[in-house]
Protein: tRNA(Ile)-lysidine synthase
Amino acid sequence: MPSLSIPLLQALSPWRNAKAWHVALSGGLDSTVLLHLLVQLRQTHSLPPITAVHIHHGLQAAADGWPDHCQALCDGLSVPLQVIRVQVQAGASVERAARDARYQAFAALIRAEEVLLVGQHRDDQAETLLFRLLRGAGVNGLAAMPRQRRLGAGHLCRPLLDVSRAQLEAYALEQGLGWIEDPSNVQTDFSRNYLRHEVFPVLTQRWPQAAASLARSAAHCAEAQELLDELAQQDLRDAGTVTEFAWLGVPSLELAPIARLSPARQRNALRHWLAAFTQLPDTDHWAGWNALRDAREDAQPVWKLAKGELHRAGGRIWWLSGDWLCPHPAPGVWAQPDQALVLPGNGQVRFVGGIADGPLQVSYRQGGEVMALEQRGHRDLKRLFNERGIPLFARGRLPLLYRNEQLLAVANLNGLDSSPCGRWQLQWLPTSSDQGLS
Structure:
C-alpha cells in the first residue's frame, strides 16, 4: 500500500460510515492524487460510494477543456463525475468571488450524512496562515483551514492537511498521473500566488521546515480557538436566560452577565454568539458595542453590523435582521377572520377560540392610542406597553385589532389580546425570516 494511503485512511476514519464521499476535483495535482488514492483504497477497504465534482467557473478560456480532462480521469478510475457551472459575481477580489461561488455549489450538493473531500495540503495551510497573519487576523483566523466543518446539510473534510505538496507530486509521478496546471496560479498579482512564488521560496531557503512549522502553528491556534469557544459557551449560558418575550422569535441575551466579564471575554462571547448571524468587525471596531453596553437605562442604543443590528431593551441585547429592520408594515382589512391574516413583512395574525365580530382591521401603533379595559377604564397604550416592558423595537410591529375606530385587542399581550368574556384571543406569529435560528 502506498505510504500516503495510511495517513489518508486514518484522517478519514470518522467518516467511514458516511452515505457518500464527494471529491472536489479541479483536475489539479492535489485533487487528482486524492481521488486516485481513494480509488486504490476502495479495492482493499469498505468505503462509502465515491463521486467526483468539478466546478467550472468560466473565468478563463483554458478552463473550458478542464471538464473533459476530469471526465477522462474519472472514466479511467470508474468514478462518476458531476460538472457544475457557476456564475462568479464581479467584485474587488476574483479569488474570493470564485471561492464563494464554488462553495455555494458544494453546499447545495452535499446532503445529510455526506462528506465533501477537498485536497488542500500542508503547503496550502501554511500559505493560509501567513496570508491571514499579514491581514492581522485573530486566533480564529490564524487557525487557518479547519480539518473538518459543516457544509450545507453535510460536512467538509480536508484529509491531506498533514501531507506536503512534494509528497503529492512524488506520488503522482510514481503512479504516472497527469494533472492540470492552472495558468492563473503563476500570476503574482494574486496575493496567495505572490506568497507561493515570491515569499515561500525565500523562507524555505533559510528555514527548510517553514511550511511544516507554520502548519503546526495553525494547529496550535485551532486548539486555542477550541478553548475560547468553550469559554464563550460557559459565559453565554449565564446570559442565555429565557425572556417572557421569547414569542418574538428574536435571539437575545441578558446584558448584565456579559457586562460583568472582562472586555476581552465580552468580545469573545459576543463573537461566538454573533457568528451565526453576521460577519464581525475586527478588534479595532468594537466601539459600537461599548456604546451600547454603557448607554443609560432610558437610552435606545443600536450597534449596526454587516447583516443586522444589535439593540438594547429591557436589560437584554437583541439581534434584529431581515424584516425586523424594514419600515413598519402597512395596515390591512381582515375580510376573512376565520382564516389567518398574512401581514406583509410581519408574519401573520389569527384568532384562537372564537372570532370577533366585524368589520375588522389590523393596524399598528401610531401614537395616542387608547384602549378600554374592564375595571380600569380607558388607558393609554403607551403606558400599557411601559407597564409590561415591551421592547421598543417590537412596539411598532405588534398587531392592533380594530373594529371601526375602536381598539379591541393587542396581539400576544395577556389581558389585552382577548375579548372581555374570553370568547376569542388574538395571536400573532411574528416573522421568522433571516433570524439565523435554523
In short: The mean pLDDT is 90. The first helix runs from residue 5 to 11. The chain has three domains: 5-122+138-185, 240-320, 332-429. DSSP finds 14 helices and 19 strands in the chain.
